[in-house]
Design goal:
mainly alpha; 67 residues
Length: 67
């Protein structure tokens, strides 16, 4: 992975996050309230699943793009 790829990925995440907050701020508040109601173990599981999915997607993109 090159530095420009890393910057592109981080920029893409910021664009998507900003878009969600700009278009649906009240939905984000509702989601955060719902997450706060979940037990810590459930939030950890959600985080771990997101982490695994993210690593899998990054790995898959490397396999598809090739060396």
């Amino acid at each position: 992975m090159t530095f420009s790829t890393l910057v592109l990925a981080l920029g893409s995440v910021l664009v998507l996050e900003g878009l969600v907050f700009a278009l649906a701020p009240s939905r984000i508040e509702d989601l955060l309230k719902a997450l706060a109601q979940l037990p810590e173990s459930a939030r950890r599981l959600i985080g771990a699943l997101a982490l695994v999915l993210g690593v899998a997607l990054i790995t898959l993109s490397g396999v598809i793009a090739g060396p």
